[in-house]
Specification:
homodimer; eleven-stranded mixed sheet; BirA Bifunctional Protein, domain 2; five-stranded mixed sheet; Rossmann fold; globular
Chain lengths: ~500, ~500
């Protein structure tokens, strides 16, 4: 093991990656488990990241003609029974409302009463309930395309939960659109995948691979499922967004019909697409280090921690006045399209304690201000992407532009680092033995850690996919869009195959 | 009945107020009933109003130090059993989750399975579940004040529902704060009521009366409930927001304790406050007329409907080019703190149809553009607060400032109109017979319509309150903060009383 350096997060990534993840969340105060099985509490610093995700995506959805709406959280059981594949994949593990009243139980407690005629399911996804509305809204080709998005909470009764990555209740957005024909619906499906990929790159500093899911990983009821996949620092893949081409399947289940340009009634073509609070898990695992959270400036809840340093009341007065000059520089200031926020941390703690507090929260920049800085009309600036003790004196006259330049550099640095990490841990493998070695853990302490992403040929036989999954817990993350056609042999059975797919362990 | 004028909404307010309300919502395409009992679908135009409400309030919450967070939608039954008054008032009519799985029923359908050990309640309000987190977060006076807000969906099993005003599921924000002492908590409670009142006035153009609820109308478990009450056009009151001083009641139920400045452990003081999608109901009923919705510009989803008029393809090309010049004037334009949005309505409908479409949706301004306008470098502008046919030619060079001026005037006009309506329908009543006459319907077709707000003395005896409620369906809406002390006699029993309260029928 490498020489130990003291880190703010224990254990380190190398020591125990899964536990490191939990500790980063705790140290940054992002979220915690609640007393309700599998449901998390998203704390202010974590929720603000979600709000920034919402703001950036909303802008993109709106510009591309989508409008937000809100549909009921409850779905009648009968709605699920309409689409056979869908129910198979979804309706099994879910929260079921069966009663509408509590009554005194005569012992100072409450008992359940008022049984419903038909049980209601707390939405695990909303295709069926939104479809019921769309069936009423769509009558003619003139009503199309219908482009709707919903921000909502979702419940899936998960057995093993993990903050942000897999929780019983989570927050997401779900786009639902209706089109005249195959081409328009397919175009929409792919366009929204691009929106996700661009958003991930530009805001989350997360390089993603766009591709299509195999049949076994497809959304239940969809014709095609497209996804963006990102590599985490344990080299596992995290599916960060999906876009589904639903063909006419859900239109048939929900009776979404319209009069086409020829005057005939036909079933519409629909799509759905979503990202969730899982993205925050991706963000954490892509950029954080052994000192805690690292936030790309374009998604950070706040950008500058201002840490005044003084010894007595007299110095305090002067230093705080100087701090005010600094915060004033960033009032209603924007870094590109993102509002800049500052945090004045005047708590009764040492400057080291306050610095570490903000390092662990991942704030992009820290500014220390003491009497000496006032004398020199400057401040000490530290960047989260550099070593904790690496500070630089910046004249106050240049501070505004220095901050903006640094935010851009940090944003770019995180993206580059994540991209290089993925490149370093992605290889083409054409030999089965090598493939199996690649996915065999090297470190006995961390059996989850493995080789990374393998680009290998696959013959399209689900049996081969299944075999590899059973042997190695490795799945096909996607059939990437970008690839040269290249003859080869299925990594599992050796039969001729034309396309490489991405094999990886995943969240 | 007055001479009939053709109106876009039928029936008119005078003919059937309750039905008029439904028709305004339908004509503006704000929301509709879903196939799930009591749950509504909020359509894009309605949801955009809610988003504007969120945006404006969020800014105010943030500036006053509050931070958003998110807590579980499910509350274990046992949590409700902790606070006796609270459970009495709340936990009775609610959605209860008892199972976590659906299974094939062997007949092609699904059956409920996986019974939970403890039933979960879908939150009807979150004091108890948030209290469980706060108990962990608060340890010392240094952790206080704790100022949290949540935007969430809420479920209360309502029997008679009405779009926006009373639905089984609705959207709201709930602020929850923790303080060191009585004074700080009380200050917060009152401060947030002021935030609501100012927001209602400035954004919704809704004049409200601030006051305190009587014991019988208090939030279950609260020490004091404060509210803002608005008058609708049927002269009924609509409670538009509440702020609760919870004393130490919920802190005791949830064990929220902290070490005070003297080093002793004590229970904290908490508050909660909320507004909901009900505000949209208030907005509709305060300003809309017999031609449909009327939206104050500061809360409207969009501000300008641009209606091109042309006879052939050649004119079309020219007119649309001119329209582009107009829309370009308002790209990333702000009316005060509100982003200006424009709608280019180039649908294949007559200009009259398009005008009426936007009148019914309540858009503040409509701009017609035809070949003659191009020739004169002008456009025809119509305001929603004037007669539908009242149009004015505005030179394009002055259009931007004309629009901004008009938006401000419309905003003010709606507020003034609502204020004058309330004044005209509010009186002091000191005579019991007159009081009973005031609340007796004058129009047999609309038994709900009555006199308005009566400022009358009340002796503080719940029996008098109860008597009037039983006799007239009239309740005490609040004990208004603003009033001169004035000796008088209880309007019900005649005993000496010092304060006037507001009596009204209400939603």
């Amino acid at each position: 093991m490498s020489k130990q350096k003291r880190t703010a997060i224990e254990p380190t990534r190398e020591q125990n990656y899964a536990e490191w993840y939990q500790q980063v969340i705790k140290a940054a105060d992002l979220a915690e488990n609640s007393e309700v099985r599998g449901c998390m509490v998203i704390k202010p610093w974590g929720y603000a990241i979600w709000e920034n995700i919402q703001r950036a995506l909303d802008e993109r959805f709106y510009e591309s003609g989508h409008r937000n709406a809100y549909f009921p959280i409850f779905i009648p059981k009968s709605f699920f029974e309409k689409e056979a594949e869908h129910v198979e994949g979804f309706a099994k593990e879910c929260a079921v409302v069966t009663h509408s009243r509590l009554e005194d139980n005569g012992e100072g407690g409450l008992k359940v009463a008022g049984e419903l005629t038909e049980p209601l399911i707390v939405r695990p996804t909303s295709e069926t309930i939104i479809g019921a509305s769309f069936a009423k809204w769509v009558n003619s080709y003139r009503d199309l395309p219908l482009l709707i998005n919903q921000w909502a909470n979702i419940v899936r009764w998960e057995m093993r939960t993990r903050l942000f990555l897999r929780t019983t209740e989570f927050l997401w957005q779900e786009g639902h659109t209706v089109h005249e024909n195959y081409e328009d619906a397919m175009l929409e499906t792919r366009k929204m995948l691009d929106v996700y990929a661009n958003f991930a790159a530009e805001y989350l500093a997360l390089p993603v691979i766009k591709g299509e899911k195999t049949d076994s990983e497809r959304f239940p009821g969809a014709v095609n499922t497209y996804c963006i996949e990102a590599m985490m620092q344990d080299k596992k893949a995290l599916q960060s967004g999906t876009s589904h081409f639903l063909g006419q399947n859900f239109a048939k289940a929900s009776e979404i019909k319209f009069q086409n340009r020829e005057g005939e009634m036909e079933y519409a073509w629909t799509t759905s697409w979503g990202v969730s609070t899982r993205l925050i898990g991706a963000l954490i695992m892509a950029h954080s280090d052994d000192n805690g959270l690292a936030l790309p400036p374009k998604i950070a809840p706040s950008h500058l921690a201002i840490i005044p340093i003084y010894r007595d009341e007299e110095e305090k007065k002067e230093v705080l006045k100087y701090c005010k000059r600094i915060t004033d520089l960033f009032v209603k200031d924007y870094f590109e399209d993102v509002r800049v926020y500052t945090e004045l941390d005047d708590r009764d703690l040492t400057s080291s304690e306050r610095n570490w507090y903000w390092i662990k929260k991942g704030i992009p920049l820290r500014i220390e201000i003491g009497p000496r800085d006032i004398a020199s009309e400057a401040v000490m600036v530290a960047r989260r992407d550099k070593e904790p003790r690496d500070k630089q004196s910046v004249p106050i006259s240049e501070l505004h532009s220095f901050v903006h330049k640094s935010l851009r550099e940090i944003q770019d640095a995180y993206y580059q680092r994540a991209l290089e990490f993925r490149k370093a841990n992605t290889i083409k493998i054409d030999d089965k033995a090598e493939f199996y070695r690649f996915f065999t853990p090297q470190n006995q302490n961390q059996p989850e850690i493995h080789g990374g992403f393998a680009h290998s040929h696959w013959c399209q036989d689900p049996a081969c996919e299944e075999q590899i999954k059973n042997d190695l817990k490795v799945t096909i993350r996607c059939i990437p869009f970008e690839q040269e056609e290249e003859e080869g042999h299925c990594i599992c059975c050796g039969k001729a195959a034309k396309t490489r797919v991405i094999f990886a362990k995943s969240y």
